[in-house]
Amino acid sequence: MTEGPLLEVRALKKEYDEGRIQALRGVDLQIGQGELVTVSGPSGSGKSTLLQLLGGLDEPSSGEVLYRGASLAGSFDLDAYRSRRVGFIFQAFYLLPALRVLDNVQIPMFEDRCGARERRQRAEALLEEVGMTHRLRQYPNELSAGERQRVAIARGLANDPEILLGDEPTGNLDSENSAKIMALLCGVQSQRNMTIVVVTHEAEVARMGHRNIHLKDGRVVAG
Amino acid sequence: MALLRIALINIVRRRLRTSLTLCGIAVGIAAFVALVGFSKSFEREWLRLYESEGTDLAVVQKTFLNTTVDETVGERIRSLPAVADVSPIVLNLMDLTPEVNALAYGLAEDSYEIAPLHFLEGRRFHANQPEVILGEILAGNLGKKAGDMMEIQGASFRVVGVFRGGSALETGAVMMPIRQLQKLADLSGKVTAFHVRLRPPKAGETAEQHIGRARAAIEQAVPGLKAVPAADRAHNNQFVSFARSIAWGTSLIALLVGALGIANTMAMAVFERTREIGILRALGWRRWRVMALIQLEAAALGLIGGVLGLGGGWGALRLLASLPMTANIAVGSISAAHAGEALAIAFVTGLAAGALPAWRAARLSPVEALRHD
Quick check: B125 and B109 in contact, CB under 8 A? Predict the structure, then answer.
């Protein structure tokens, strides 16, 4: 589909607190179409910061992130990038508590120009894909942690993204549910040839990617 | 699932706060509906008064502070060819008992304005005599009938008749010889206005042309005075202007309190839901859509509060229409235009109150918002 990498990071730095905290200290990497990449490292190594920059949630202090060769900086439409190209899964699930499962999955579809019926049908199909058909009308607080993450994955896939970014998606799950969620993500990746980047501090999860990038003190030390 | 549905879900999830906010805006709208509705009823009764008497023009002072006119100019107005009849009138608001006050009309015995009154008992008053006639509602409130005596500001008057008029401003009023009211109000030689009845228009002349020509002739004949069409006079006389100012002023204060309630609720909602807003932004919602969601919630609060206030205001108007002191003026119903005006004000108030919180929500950085506890 593309000759170059899908995502590329060049000399990426991110500082907080007027430079007193350096989360990323010059990261270079490339991620190709259809790769399942895990990013591991100890707490404070810059994993989540890297993911936020890849997803266009934040802007780097210097360096750049490129999507299909185009820099996410400047006039790049980050809202459109997040709504059409990228899906997110968070450690804390971040489902909207006042909305039912079926409604939560439809949230990313609002930027698509599709009608309410189509949104609903797509959400039902996605929830079937993650095995949550029986919980459509439940609220997030009525679900187990594993079920919530399944719903979050369905929501992450809602806008049919090219890239799925997971920030410690198994961090709040027991080992059994972690394995199930990772198996689900691997299945999604292979079925859709989707690019998935998963940040994790669990060695077992890190080994499940096609490639593991290991960060330490804001720098890539392996991968 | 539509954006409106998410907005309504968000409103319902904080029931107590939403209820209190709705109370605030509902009180504001109820005050608007009741007070402005009452002042409109008052204005309508003035128009009915002029229409039932057949008055075309009112000749009054041009200046606002000087509200009386020398009564001698009446003859100059009467001599104009377009004028059929002139009725000098003194108008005052008087305390008849500690509980009851009423409009008092001082009129000439042969005024054309008395002719349309339907006498339920007695007769019209005689010129210069200490006699009054009472509108039927006022007579009922005072418990007076023809032949009874009553005291008005220290002077004794005989009730010589009870009448039914074309307007509530008459049926709740007392009328007496103009000299008597001039004496009571210390307005010797002065009148409040001259009511003028015009001759029919010339052939081919429209009503507007006819009235315009008569106004010009009168204003030329009596410099310093202005001739106001009855409808304008009904809309702009000092009683109506005062009632309208009080009604709008009070309503605006109440609406401001309601708007502050909505602004506070939405500001709190944005603060409490910062992370949720971050989630929406992370999931690709554009700034304008976040703003639209907050604005929808604020506007829905305004509109729901408006509907509740409409009900409250209607109840208050019905109450006013049933009380003896106000029954002659208040109408216990709301016109579609007034209801629409109230709902539009509620809607716009909600939008205005939600604007700043919505703008702040839209400006949130997704990553900062996601970090919010």
Answer: yes
Give contacts of B285 with chain A, Cβ < 8 Å: 79, 83, 107, 110-111
User: ipTM of the assembly?
Assistant: 0.90
Torsion of the alpha carbons at B203, B207, B209 and B213, rounded to the nearest 10: 90
Residues B298-326 as b or e (16 or more Cβ within 10 Å = b): bbbbbbbbbbbbbebbbebbeebbeeeeb
Report all structural domains of chain A as residue ranges with CATH numbers, in order of start. Answer: 34-57+78-222 (3.40.50.300)
CA gap A154, B273 in Å, rounded: 23
Look up residue A85 and give its DSSP letter: T
pLDDT in tens, B319-351: 988 886 777 677 778 889 999 999 999 999 999
> Which has the closest alpha carbon to B157: B210, B104, B114, B80?
B104
- The partner residues of A134 in beta bridges, in order of sequence, read none
Q: Which residues on A lie below 8 Å from B276 (Cβ)?
A: 96
Count other Cβ atoms within 10 Å, centred on residue B148: 15
Measure in Å the smallest separation between the Cα of B267 and chain A Cα atoms. Answer: 19
Q: B287-322 and B336-363 are packed helices; what angle lies between their axes, rounded to 10 degrees?
A: 150
Nearest residue of A to residue B2, measured between CA atoms: A116
pLDDT band at A215 (very low <50, low <70, confident <90, very high): very high
Q: Can you give the pTM of this predicted structure? A: 0.77
Q: Regarding beta strands B131-135 and B174-177, do their DSSP bridges make them parallel or antiparallel, or are they unpaired?
A: antiparallel
Give the tens place of pLDDT for each residue, B307-316: 999 999 999 9
pLDDT per residue as tens digits for the range A89-141: 998 899 999 999 999 999 999 888 788 899 999 999 999 988 899 999 999 99
The C-alpha of A104 sits at a distance from chain B's nearest C-alpha, in angstroms, of 10
pLDDT of residue B64: 62
